[in-house]
Amino acid sequence: MDYLDFLRSLHQRLEPQRYLEIGVRWGQSLGVSRCLSVGIDPAFSIESELHTEVHLYRTTSDEYFARPEPLAPVGGEPFDLAFIDGMHLFEFALRDFINAERHSRPSGLVIFDDVLPRNVDEAARDRITSAWTGDVYPILPVLARYRPDLLTVAVDTAPTGLLMVLGLDPTSTVLADHYDEIIAEYRAADPQPVPPEILDRTFVQAPERVLGSPLVDLLVGPDAGSGDLAARLRTAAAEYLGPAYLD
Ligand SMILES: C[S@@+](CC[C@H](N)C(=O)[O-])C[C@H]1O[C@@H](n2cnc3c(N)ncnc32)[C@H](O)[C@@H]1O
Q: I need a labelling partner for 10 at 20 to 30 A (CA). Which of 30, 110, 217, 244 fits?
């Protein structure tokens, strides 16, 4: 399944009220949104039809989130869904997650693009291929190690995979507090040491299976934000996607 079809299905299932997109380019992924949306990109050039009220910012995500009120365009309310697809370098992706989570609902969903490079060249920090994931992939071991409270589900979408992050904690400062040590340990020089399990996609979930699971349903409805959401998400993931999600 193409990543845009997966995103479209998620928008339909979740019916988010506020959507954040970091990295807009031609507006293809923004085109699937039907809710109040914020798009951030220093160099967007919209070619796709947009179908909703969109606030576009021609700036970097770092600059945008340094503003005093990043939620002002969405009425001061946090995001329900965020898509991180901006600068494909590890430190940028990590900062984008820190900022996206901080401005999301606990029942929100953050999705990374490009976490599953198909080869080492595609993952290079110094771009040498036309299709480029860059080194976003270390976000997988970093979230597993520093944020075991989050539920992360890697999805086998074409072309370069998605990572769903659920059970958010907008108050967490763990990643920000350990930012320098994380970058020092996980940012590697080219050629990238992409782990074989990422290249082989051994641990990923079929997109149809994720969409057919009750995970997304747990994020909507009146109980979605209640205290034990993380536990319910983990139980559902273990039941429908496999016992590894109980770890
Ligand atoms: C892969 S494209 C986004 C594609 C779009 N999400 C889609 O699927 O249709 C990546 C975009 O990130 C933008 N970008 C680069 N650096 C950025 C930054 N620091 N903050 C936000 N966007 C950035 C680029 O200008 C580029 O348009």
A: 244
Ligand 1 closest atom vs CA 25 = 27
Separation in Å, CA 208 to CA 2, 23, 189: 11, 25, 35
* Gap from CA of 235 to ligand 1 centroid (Å): 34
Contacts of residue 185, Cβ cutoff 8 Å, sequence gap at least 6: none
**CB neighbourhood size of 84 (10 A):** 30
This model's pTM is above 0.90: yes
207-237 pLDDT per residue, tens: 999 999 999 999 997 778 777 898 999 999 9
**Sequence-separated (6 or more) residues with CB below 8 Å from residue 116:** 133, 137, 154, 156, 160, 161, 198, 201, 204
Any atom of ligand 1 within 6 Å of the Cβ of 244: no
CA end-to-end span of the chain, whole Å?
27
Q: Are strands 162-166 and 151-155 parallel, antiparallel or unpaired?
A: antiparallel
